[in-house]
Amino acid sequence: MLFGSHDYEIEHYEDTIVLIGHQPTRYIFAAEPDKIYYCNDTINLDCGLGRGGQLGVLCLDTGEEIYF
Q: How far, in Å, CA of 34 to CA of 9, rounded?
């Protein structure tokens, strides 16, 4: 899946969370721009820092989101 498009609508692996980046959330129709995006078994962490967005950090232990 490296550098390919990601299908958010399917379950990829049973009992697994897929963490992705390299596609800023501002370019995902259903996502809130520049915020961490959750859909099915996928979390997109790319909040667009390189394109004028922000840095998003997700604590995998607590689920806390921090933005800079």
A: 20
Nearest to 36 by CA among 60, 57, 12, 5: 57
Each of the 68 residues of the chain gets a pLDDT tens digit; together they read 566 788 898 988 899 999 999 899 999 999 999 999 999 999 999 999 999 999 999 999 999 999 99
CB 65 within 8 A of CB 58: yes
Q: Reduced to 3 states, what is the DSSP secondary structure of residue 30?
A: coil
Neighbours of 8 (CB within 10 A): 19
- Please give the model's pTM, rounded to 2 decimal places: 0.89
